[in-house]
Give the backbone structure.
Amino acid sequence: MFELSSALSGETGQCFHIGGRWVSPSGIRRTPVASPSTEMELLPVPLGDTRDVDRAVAAARTAFDHGPWPRMSAPERAAHLRWPADEVRRRLRLAARLWTAQVGAPVAFAEGLVQAGGSRFDHFAELAGSYAFHDRRPTFRGHARVIREPVGVAALFAPWNATFSILAYKIPAALAADCAVVVKSPPEGPLDTLVVAECAAAAELPPGVVNVITADREESRALAASPERGQDQLHRERADGPLAAVGHPVAPGPTGASRTGKRTR
C-alpha cells in the first residue's frame, strides 16, 4: 500500500511554496485527498485563500521586477532550466505513484507518461538558448525589428486529472520565456504540483520564480483577476519599423473543470 504521508516531506504535504520558501497557509482551511478506489481519506492538505494568492503574486512580481531571472542571458537561463529537469527525473516514480493514488490513473499508464517530464524541461531549456526573442524581418519598405517580451507574472492552472504532465509543459515554457509563475494546484490532486515546487527549490531557482499554492475556484478567480499577472500568457510581441505587425500572446491554457474555466476567463 502506497502511503502518501511517508512518501512526502512535511513541507510538501502541509505548506505552500512562495518566494523561494516553504510557508504556512494564511488560513486554517483543509481539504482531504481521497483515494479514488476506496474513497478513504489519504491525507489532509491546506487550502489557500486570497491572501495566499496575493502573497504568491507579490513574490512572483518581485522576482520578475527585481530578481535575476529575466535579466539572465539566454545561455544562462537555459543552463538553469536543466537543473529542475534533473530534479524532476529523480522524482518520476513518485510522480507516477501520486497520479495513481490521487486520481486513479492506471499504474502502467502513469509510469509511462511521466517519463516525458524531465525531457520537456530539457526541450524548453534548449529552446530558451536558441529562440529568436529579438528578430529582424524584411518588409517592402525596409525591415521591422520584432521583440518578444515576457508578460511578467504568468498564472498557471493545473487540471486535476493530469496535473504533472500538464505542468511539465507549462512551467518550463513560462520560465524559458523569462516569466515568473504562480501555479494554482487543484484541491482534488494537489501533491504533484507541490513535488514540482520541491524540484524548483532543490534546483535553487531564484526566489519567487516558481510559486505554488493549492486553492479552490474562488481563489482561481482571484488569481485570474489579478492585475499583476498574465493568465497562461508567456510573451507579447512589439515591433519597431514601418508597417510592422504586432503578434498575439500565447492563448490561455486549460484549467480543468468547465465551470472553473468559465469563471477564470
The first strand starts at residue 16 and ends at 18.
